[in-house]
Design a protein that fits this description.
mainly alpha
């Protein structure tokens, strides 16, 4: 099995990985800085974002972010 990637394939792969890492980092940082009313709910969103990285980040983006208030 010959697995040779062209330079454009490598760049595309690196961009996808970078997007994944940045989205994960953002959702963890945002969940940590928001006030959810209870520590359990904040802990839940942090766990989802860490343990189920891509899907958890999307869930937090569309559901969890609306539930918390931005700390001022």
């Amino acid at each position: 099995m010959n697995l040779s990637l062209s330079s454009s394939d490598i760049v595309t792969l690196l961009l996808v990985v970078a997007l994944f890492v940045l989205l994960s980092w953002w959702s963890i940082r945002d969940a940590y800085s928001r006030d959810f009313g209870s520590g359990n709910e904040k802990f839940f969103w942090l766990q989802i974002s860490v343990l189920i990285p891509f899907i958890g980040c999307l869930l937090y983006l569309f559901i969890g972010r609306k539930r918390g208030r931005k700390n001022t």
